[in-house]
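Internal ticket - ligand job 395, zinc ion:
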Amino acid sequence: MSLLPTKATHRQTREFNVRLVLRCLYDLGPVSRAEIARRTHLTRTTVSDVVAGLLDEELVEEVGRGPSSGGKAPILLRVVPDARLVIGLDLGEEAFTGALVDLRGTIHHEERIAIEGRDGTAALGLVYRLVERMLERAERPLLGIGVGTPGVIDTAGGVIRWAVNLDWQDLALASLLERRFGLPVQVVNDCRAAALAIYAFGATGSRPANLIAVKAGKGVGAGIVMGGELVHGDGYGAGEIGHVVVVEDGDPCRCGRRGCLETVASAHAIMDHLEGPGTDHGSDDSEATLDQAREAFERGDARVQSVVLSAGRYLGGAIAAMIGAMDIHRVVLHGSVTTFGEPWVASVRERVGQRTLGLLASDVDISVADSGSNLAVLGASALLMTSQLGLSLTR
Ligand SMILES: [Zn+2]
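stdout (structure tokens):
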């Protein structure tokens, strides 16, 4: 005998069916009701009922008729791309970005607020302000808020365990935002979010089942998608390669140890090696300095070339270890260091080739993500869409 009340069971079944139909429409649309029934193994009556509900909610629309297979040509349906919007936030290290993202990952509106050294409660105030601004601009129903942020994040609980630059420890950001704005919230580490964004919206053609996205920016970190699922790890630290020590007694790292990958492979590390450690690459200077380094690099300045290519080789070594552990063939690089272009990517590739078993290395495809799209915003939004609508963004 079931312990669940029948009503709850019915509701759960219905919710499951709605998610199944929506997922099918999202992945395959435009598609007919009959085709949905075939793919989902639901009865035609169930599919028709579910679709009627989705049409009422204006999540789905009819878009003409498909080819006839003898009888009357079937009506085709698809998910309306901007039927719902998600507020996507990227709590970056220098600025917070807020955006309104639709169901296909198109950004409808975007705003940036400089952090200017704010942390703790003041930084939280900035997050609230950004959400309020997005609420004012939203012209479609909102699904919720997706937050991508650096640091160690308990995504299931929506808790920021540790975000060093914002001075947040065990901050229950999801419940704070849920209570304040009455919307569902997902919080995810920005490197994990980026992996999800590349997986969900970045791939053209068929999605790879497995993917490693490696960020080489101010910090270094990776996000891993395996079997279509975002890997979080036992302690939500999967992909935290930036603080693995790679140089014995190396330079001091902001985490308190010495010789972490971040001290040799990040944008910060490149600046430090060019200007001497301890130089302040504070907010507005850092981009200018990185631009200057890039110009010197492109002019063929030997010292800059040596530092940048060495950064690439260190990153390649870390990627080789991940490939060795997981045998993932698709690697996508992103972050400000990727602007050093092909010579830097070649140094990453070369080291991966040298440090990986030949059989594994031969099929590895290392590329750079399209710049210009905010991967943390898109990935956090994708996670929210998955949780709310069951869209197959991580499958
Ligand atoms: Zn470290």
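Auto-summary: The CA atoms of residues 270 and 333 lie 17 Å apart. The chain is about 45% helix and 20% strand.
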